């Protein structure tokens, strides 16, 4: 997840947690498969130790380029299974407004069980659960501003 070097997800978390070891490799190291594998392992360990789970709303889709605005024919992940598979889950956050829109579309089309819908409402109630997109295409906010917005969820 978020492995593209221009995406700011890992730089944001690296700053928040003071963990430069999870940030992207510098350009001279990106072709080194061993260093890349070590980085992925460090990131997985970091996510586990911080109790952070990552899961895309969309399992697969047709897309032209990398912009979410070009997504066509989305096939959703089984988000409803989070209700039973992750009983200790406390919050669900979205890394963009578009991801939240797809989540709402998923619920509307795939979840009829009131108990599951109530559980999802509980996971997303209160403070805003929509974070600024870490995509470098989201130039409305600087990395420092995104860090500030993201940091509140870890306090």
Overall average pLDDT: 86
Shape: globular
Radius of gyration: 16 Å
Percent helix range: 40-55%
Note the main sheet.
2 strands, antiparallel
Strand arrangement, major sheet: 1-2
Spans of at least 5 consecutive residues with low confidence: none
Distance between the termini: 23 Å
What structural class do you assign from the helix and strand content?
mainly alpha
- Tally of DSSP helical segments: 6
Count of β-strands:
2
Report strand %: 5-15%
Structural description of this entry:
It is a single chain. Helix 1 crosses helix 6. It contains six helices and two strands. With 155 residues, the chain is mostly helical. The chain starts with 8 loop residues before the first helix and ends with a helix. It is globular, with a radius of gyration of 16 Å. The chain has a two-stranded antiparallel sheet.
Write out key terms for the chains shown.
155 residues, mainly alpha, two-stranded antiparallel sheet
Topology diagram in text:
Elements: H1 9-16, H2 33-49, E1 58-63, E2 71-76, H3 82-85, H4 97-110, H5 114-123, H6 143-151
Antiparallel strand pairs: 1-2
Helix pairs in contact: 1-6
């Amino acid at each position: 997840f978020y492995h593209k070097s221009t995406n700011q997800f890992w730089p944001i978390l690296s700053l928040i947690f003071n963990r430069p070891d999870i940030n992207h490799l510098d350009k001279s190291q990106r072709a080194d498969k061993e260093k890349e594998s070590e980085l992925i392992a460090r990131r997985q360990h970091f996510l586990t130790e911080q109790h952070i789970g990552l899961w895309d709303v969309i399992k697969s889709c047709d897309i032209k380029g990398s912009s979410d605005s070009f997504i066509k024919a989305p096939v959703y992940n089984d988000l409803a299974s989070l209700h039973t598979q992750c009983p200790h889950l406390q919050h669900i956050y979205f890394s963009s407004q578009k991801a939240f829109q797809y989540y709402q579309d998923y619920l509307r089309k795939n979840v009829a069980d009131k108990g599951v819908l109530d559980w999802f409402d509980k996971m997303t109630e209160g403070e805003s659960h929509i974070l600024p997109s870490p995509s470098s295409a989201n130039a409305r906010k600087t990395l420092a501003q995104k860090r500030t917005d993201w940091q509140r969820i870890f306090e």
